[in-house]
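I am still learning, so would you mind making up any protein sequence you like and the tokens describing how it folds?
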Amino acid sequence: MIPPVANRFVAGESAATVLDHARRMEASGVKSICNLLGEHYDERGPADEDTAAYRRLLRDIPDSLDACVSVKPSQLGIEMGSDVFGENLAAIVEVAAEEGRFVWVDMEGHDTIDATLDAFEAAARDYPEMGLCLQSNMKRTDEDLRDVAEYAGKIRLVKGAYDPPRELTHQGKDAVNEAYERHLEYLFREFEGGVAVGSHDPRMIDHAIELHEEYGTDFEIQMLMGVREDAQVDLAREYEVYQYVPYGDRWASYFYRRVLERKENALFALRAILS
């Protein structure tokens, strides 16, 4: 059972709890991206189990609810081989196509980028209702953006939360921000599939709105559950906003990452424990 202190960042342990949360958020104007917690499997069994769980979730989302899913490559077996990941992603996309649901593919470590790009391209060729995440802290993203401009689907742009070798990344907050703004400009100018602004940074969101007004490119704003939720609701009055909603029994490591990454989150957790 998830303790109350973690409920800010994790919807619950079951599919029913994430769907209940998605209904509540949709009532406030914010749509949901459901993510079953789990990653870095080194055996096929858990990867296949999570694949089956996603397939069930896609079938369980009611027609009245505007929700989609987001999957992690390491959760679907990429560390056991790109073929395992590709098979499991295809199995999820098969059900998504039957149900008319969108599928996001997260991006993880630097050593899985190429395999993730290849699997996404193969899946999106048959089912374009898909989206791929790219990370602006990676130096290679300028080139990757030019490549994916030909893909079907959407691109979610994030600053990047992983820790690749220094020589592969832009170093320092200013350099990453500069890259993120440059990548946003490229996407709004060149990409026709739609842009997802995966950021809580008001400066980046304002920049995206300006680019939307200039180029007319479809876009949405994506933020995490438990982070700037008031802003999510406010923005949803005018723009399309999705909340990334984790759920599942592997909640502990995710919760502690959220607590450690921001001072405000740590203070929230401390207040909740003390009360």
In short: The mean pLDDT is 91. The beta strands are 31-36, 67-71, 103-105, 130-135, 154-158, 195-198, 219-224, 241-247. The longest strand covers residues 241-247.
